[in-house]
């Protein structure tokens, strides 16, 4: 692909690519995407036109894996690792990767160890024919792995998978396959694709593991570990119990062990090579494209040189949020997955779903809140082991064994999950974790909300707005910006905090609700940036506020009668104070500078209704626009992200006056520039200065609830 385009070898390669794309890929009719440097997989056309573009312009840079033309994102053993025997799955290679260290199979007089037993069991499965006199090269194990892979790729249910196995067995009686999903799963889980079930107290007080693994009652709150056994007709004597009662745990945590999965990353040579990208292939020109370019990564390397000396040591990020797995909002349930990302990969690999590792699945009818630390215990223990001791890991790319260590750089979450993971309450007067006890707040008496103002603190000392009382909160502002606490200072403050969790947790700890379990990691107090906010959640909230206020959508607008009474209470912006009618029955609200007429609202909605978007950039936003009602709702988080970056500026600039439109356009520009793929440190410093002025401008224009 990198050869000169006039050479015969390149032309032959183009023809081979086209054969592959039209045979393996999924062409739309007779058309495929242009992979040329000019079009970049954006447009679709027929074979002759694609051939012409590839000869004229060459392939788009870096398009080595043809994921848009039928090639899988990850080369998997079951569908790509074929040996020279005519397309036979390399099941022996798969077993060698899964059981790399099989030297000491015997443990004295105790027979085979557990790894050896699993290994020999899979060897036996791999040696069984799929059916008598099978000549396709499939073994029983390889066929089940291939089927299981398809189930995962296409989202088949367990019941449908069982039905498929039963149909295959009925149609081909000699087929040597299991007849149910559970039996097939037992075969596959020996490859290390299993998880642990850990029972938990229904009040989130403890996990039944280690010394408590055989307990049946919580030693903190006294709640039973199991659901009560049902009875019939209210008479236990009439209910015939079997000899062995099947006890059902009240709550069960699913834990996916981390160390085996990290070791497995190095078992594939391609993946093991990709884990070196951050050091060997990353462009080091001073711009920030990757976490390795950031100061947090560099500080960790400086403080712990022995850790940074081995470039294969892993840097991880952790994210968590709640969702309702049943989709129907009338079902009371909140499941919290905890996901880990590996940052050693390149940016286009580290965020792929294949490398985002589900670590915990926390069930419950509600959020675990501060008790999430109880469920994080097994993960923190593994992370501590990875930092202190490390694990022997075979690097298939280098062909050697090394001691792998790993460090957790930070967590990423929304504002409510921030409180759960950090221990600092993000509600009330001191909600800002960075400003801490120096947070500037104002409680609105009529709106009954706490807002966070005084952005003038972050302006230069000689800025004119610092002494402007009328346009802001009626006071002169000469305070400097609050100082962020270091990890050591936070840990020192937490010494006096009662760290009881579960049903016995204290309610009077102030803003600090607990000492976060992450401080059990030896390096956590030295991390510069322990917790991050997810920018997509922030953008969604901002778009909700902008659209709700500009279109005056009931229930979403921040400009309402209570907000106007709050302005009157503070004695600022007198032109917006509510006016009571003569009869005293109605309150008249003056028109604000950001208010739009019905015609302007129709134009605003019409711009979004008629917008044509590139395929895959966002969902169909036009379906969310109710032009007759002049409303916009039902859009998702990614839609809000796209609108904030590219769409809202158009109607805002064309409809609103400049002194209102410019701050909103600057706000949109801030997030678009912050989310670009490459940014310099100088540009970040410039954005930090600009956003302070933008927030001060918004504080002068919009009602106070807009600042929440």
Topology record:
Elements: H1 8-23, E1 31-33, E2 44-46, H2 47-57, H3 77-80, H4 91-98, H5 114-127, H6 140-154, H7 158-171, H8 181-189, E3 196-200, E4 251-255, H9 258-265, H10 269-274, H11 277-280, H12 295-303, H13 305-309, E5 314-320, E6 336-342, H14 347-350, E7 357-362, H15 372-388, E8 391-395, E9 400-404, E10 406-413, H16 415-422, E11 442-444, E12 449-451, H17 487-493, E13 531-533, H18 535-550, H19 561-570, E14 579-580, E15 587-588, H20 598-609, E16 625-626, E17 631-632, H21 637-647, H22 649-655, H23 658-674, H24 681-701
Parallel strand pairs: 5-10, 10-13
Antiparallel strand pairs: 1-2, 3-4, 4-7, 5-6, 6-7, 8-9, 11-12, 14-15, 16-17
Helix pairs in contact: 1-2, 6-8, 18-21, 20-22, 22-23, 23-24
What does this structure look like?
This protein is of the alpha+beta class. It has 4 domains: 8-69, no CATH class; 77-189, no CATH class; 256-438 and 482-531, no CATH class; 535-707, no CATH class. Strands 3-4-7-6-5-10-13 form a 7-stranded mixed beta sheet. A hairpin with a 4-residue loop joins strand 8 (391-395) and strand 9. The chain starts with 7 loop residues before the first helix and ends in a 7-residue tail after the last helix. The relative contact order is 0.06.
């Amino acid at each position: 692909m990198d050869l000169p385009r006039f050479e015969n070898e390149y032309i032959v390669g183009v023809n081979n690519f086209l054969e592959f794309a039209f045979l393996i890929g999924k062409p739309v009719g007779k058309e495929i995407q242009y992979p040329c440097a000019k079009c970049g997989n954006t447009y679709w056309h027929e074979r002759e036109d694609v051939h012409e573009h590839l000869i004229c312009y060459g392939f788009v840079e870096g398009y080595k894996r043809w994921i848009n033309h039928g090639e899988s994102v990850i080369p998997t053993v079951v569908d790509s690792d074929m040996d020279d025997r005519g397309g036979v799955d390399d099941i022996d290679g798969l077993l060698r990767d899964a059981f790399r260290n099989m030297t000491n199979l015997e443990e004295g007089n105790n027979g085979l160890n557990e790894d050896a037993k699993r290994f020999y069991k899979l060897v036996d499965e791999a040696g069984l024919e799929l059916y008598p006199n099978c000549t396709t090269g499939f073994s029983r194990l390889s066929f089940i792995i291939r089927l299981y892979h398809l189930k995962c790729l296409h989202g088949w249910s367990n019941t449908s998978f069982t039905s498929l196995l039963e149909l295959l067995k009925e149609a081909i009686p000699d087929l040597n396959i299991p007849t149910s999903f559970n039996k097939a799963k037992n075969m596959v889980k020996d490859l290390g694709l299993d998880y642990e079930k850990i029972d938990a107290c229904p009040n989130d007080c403890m996990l039944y593991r280690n010394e408590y693994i055989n307990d049946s009652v919580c030693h903190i709150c006294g709640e039973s570990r199991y659901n009560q056994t049902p009875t019939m007709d209210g008479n236990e004597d009439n209910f015939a119990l079997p000899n062995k009662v099947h006890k059902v745990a009240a709550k069960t945590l699913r834990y996916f062990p981390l160390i085996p999965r990290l070791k497995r990353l190095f078992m594939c040579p391609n993946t093991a090579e990709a884990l070196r990208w951050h050091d060997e292939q990353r462009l080091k020109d001073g711009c920030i494209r990757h976490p390795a370019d950031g100061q947090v990564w560099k500080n960790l390397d400086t403080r712990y040189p022995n850790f940074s000396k081995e470039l294969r040591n892993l840097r991880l990020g952790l994210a968590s949020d709640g969702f309702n797995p049943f989709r129907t909002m009338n079902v009371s349930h909140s499941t919290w997955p905890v996901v880990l990302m590996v940052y050693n990969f390149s940016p286009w690999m580290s965020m792929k779903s294949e490398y985002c590792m589900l670590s915990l699945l926390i069930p419950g009818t509600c959020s675990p809140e501060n008790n999430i630390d109880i469920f994080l215990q097994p993960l923190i223990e593994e992370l501590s082991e990875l930092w202190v001791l490390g694990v022997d890991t075979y690097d298939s790319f280098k062909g050697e064994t090394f001691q792998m260590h790993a460090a957790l750089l930070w967590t990423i979450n929304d504002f409510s999950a921030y409180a759960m993971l950090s221990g600092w309450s993000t509600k009330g007067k001191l909600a800002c974790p960075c400003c801490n006890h120096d947070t500037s707040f104002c409680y609105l008496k009529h709106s009954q909300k706490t807002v966070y103002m005084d952005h003038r603190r972050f302006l230069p000392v000689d800025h004119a707005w610092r002494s402007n009382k009328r346009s802001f909160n009626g006071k002169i502002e000469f305070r400097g910006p609050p100082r962020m606490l270091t990890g050591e200072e936070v840990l020192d403050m937490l010494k006096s905090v009662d760290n009881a969790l579960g049903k016995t947790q204290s309610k009077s700890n102030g803003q600090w609700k607990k000492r976060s379990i992450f401080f059990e990691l030896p390096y956590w107090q030295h991390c510069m940036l322990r917790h991050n906010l997810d920018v997509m959640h922030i953008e969604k909230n901002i778009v909700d506020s902008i659209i709700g206020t500009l279109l005056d959508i009931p229930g979403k607008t921040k400009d309402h009668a209570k907000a106007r009474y709050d302005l009157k209470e503070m004695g600022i912006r007198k032109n917006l104070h509510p006016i009571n009618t003569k009869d005293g029955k109605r309150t008249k609200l003056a028109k604000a500078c950001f208010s739009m007429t019905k015609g302007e609202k129709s134009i605003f909605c019409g711009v979004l209704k008629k917008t044509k978007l590139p395929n895959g950039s966002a969902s169909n936003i036009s379906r969310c626009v109710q032009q007759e009602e002049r409303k916009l709702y039902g859009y998702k988080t990614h839609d809000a992200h796209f609108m904030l970056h590219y769409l809202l500026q158009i109607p805002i600039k064309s409809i609103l006056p400049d002194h209102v439109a410019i701050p909103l356009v600057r706000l949109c520009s801030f997030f678009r520039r912050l989310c670009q793929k490459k940014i310099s440190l100088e540009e970040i410093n410039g954005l930090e200065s600009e956003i302070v002025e933008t927030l001060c401008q918004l504080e002068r224009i919009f009602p106070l609830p807009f600042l929440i």
